[in-house]
Amino acid sequence: MTSTDHPFGRTTTTLDELHGCVDVTDAKRVLNSIGVAKPDKAVEGFLDQMPTLLAWLDEHGRDYPWRRASDPWQIYASEILLQRTRSDAVADIYPEFFAQFPSARCLLEADEEDLRSIVHPLGFVNHRVRTLREAAELCAEVQDEVPADLEALQQPWRVGPYTARACLLFAFDQPMALVDTNTARIVGRVFDYPLPEQPHKSTRVQRLLDALAPDNPALARAFNLALLDLGALVCTSENPNCPACPLAEGCEYAQTGDV
Questions:
Q1: In the prediction, which pLDDT does 113 show?
Q2: Does residue 79 have an active-site annotation?
Q3: Among residues 23, 76, 79, 173, which one is catalytic?
Q4: What is the chain's mean pLDDT, rounded?
Q5: What contacts 140, CB < 8 A, 6 or more positions away?
Q6: For the HhH-GPD domain, which residue ranges apply (predicted)?
Q7: What angle do the packed helices 161-172 and 72-81 form, to 10 degrees?
Q8: Which CATH architecture has domain 15-63+175-255?
Q9: Catalytic residue among 94, 162, 193, 253, which?
Q10: I need a labelling partner for 128 at 20 to 30 A (CA). Which of 40, 50, 84, 237 fits?
């Protein structure tokens, strides 16, 4: 990893530092635009809890092998493997996959059946094989290098903004926010934000999370991983464990008795 030796990024910060690296004004503007009550208080409350959130990640975060990777190909391919599947399932095939395909060119030159055999436990085999091969072709076009460009990273079939942004964040230290069902659910509950039907496709949800993500690469890494893991482990879609949540004190959902 490039921004830090810690797989989670930097998990310590102060409120003063956050005020200098979070776009508080734009976050308040987004919340105000959709009618969230007291957006100033809501954003400040979230910032107050962010150091606690990062400390929670340090103690409870999931230590997957791709979070310790520094090679852009490993990170890009891992994000493709993680599409529509469980992280633990990807962890099971991770060593074999990168032992056999340590570079994009190795994947292109390999027998396709070998690739199919390795990714078979993840399901959606045709989907994954096509996407991985097109991603490898993209990298091979630039001398076996992963492009550090949002649009270019989305050229392969079924690679969307989330996968491309995750690659830029984790492989190239470009601070930005990741929007998926977990991160959107958290901001929806924390701010009593009326989420659209497909929040991962909402430019407004993306803008809010981008505003809240620190512009420090190591903090941005930790911020995103904390939300991803919190949504998977605590702020689950059903039966969230609000008493164990580091954001509970500033969360509308936890404080209004909707638990």
A1: 98
A2: yes
A3: 79
A4: 95
A5: 104, 105, 108
A6: 81-233
A7: 150
A8: Orthogonal Bundle (1.10)
A9: 162
A10: 237
